[in-house]
Amino acid sequence: AHFPIWCKLRYMLGPTFAVITYYMICFTTIDQYFSTHYRYNFRQICTINIILGSFFDIQPLVGCVISNERYLQYTSFLYYPVLIGLLPIVITLFFSLLAYRNVRRIVRRQLPIVRRRLDQQMTAMIVIRVIFFICLVLPYNICRIYVTIYPISRDDMLRYVIVRLVQAITFSFSQANYTVGFYLFIITSSRFRRQTKYVIFKKLWPRCKQGCCLKNNEVVPENFEESGNHNIELEDAS
């Protein structure tokens, strides 16, 4: 807490990567909607947005506490309620429902069975990911909005401790959002399991095994000096 550089990096990189991660899920649902659309020009659409951070003041002696009023307003009224709150939830929910509707229409289109199954499985994975995304993120955002609208004084110690406990629990759930995707895909998608198994056992494991067994393939040079002396001794004996 006595290093202002670490505190500044924490409050700059943390929110930036959080926003990028949240909107990666948004763009995944949007991409799935366009990729399953019946119009060809819609299937060619791809959008990428990058949001960068800001500067602010920090008081390191009392911990990583922000003292800049503008940044406090930004986090209270834009970052938590909008950027990582309602906006990604609305985007993912809206486009996942549209992608689900597109998949239901795939049956009417003249597409190979393999393509239909892949689109259906991919859409199911994304819908499940969106459901877990909303369940993990929404409680923490509600807690942050509540604290912003109804600030709690430390004089009311019991209420302050309860809100901080709820905030810590919901924050822990929101952090699980960054790692839960892989395990959800492993559980819900047989194709993803096969591909993961193929990469691990057919690609990575042979390379690791080859790297660990390099010593067994070493070539030991022949000692020509000793063999030469041995030949000289044989000639002398003869």
UniProtKB/TrEMBL annotation:
<protein>
    <recommendedName>
        <fullName>G-protein coupled receptors family 1 profile domain-containing protein</fullName>
    </recommendedName>
</protein>
<feature type="transmembrane region" description="Helical">
    <location>
        <begin position="162"/>
        <end position="187"/>
    </location>
</feature>
<dbReference type="GO" id="GO:0016020">
    <property type="term" value="C:membrane"/>
</dbReference>
<dbReference type="InterPro" id="IPR017452">
    <property type="entry name" value="GPCR_Rhodpsn_7TM"/>
</dbReference>
<feature type="transmembrane region" description="Helical">
    <location>
        <begin position="12"/>
        <end position="34"/>
    </location>
</feature>
<feature type="transmembrane region" description="Helical">
    <location>
        <begin position="121"/>
        <end position="142"/>
    </location>
</feature>
<keyword id="KW-1133">Transmembrane helix</keyword>
<keyword id="KW-0812">Transmembrane</keyword>
<feature type="domain" description="G-protein coupled receptors family 1 profile">
    <location>
        <begin position="64"/>
        <end position="185"/>
    </location>
</feature>
<feature type="transmembrane region" description="Helical">
    <location>
        <begin position="78"/>
        <end position="100"/>
    </location>
</feature>
<keyword id="KW-0472">Membrane</keyword>
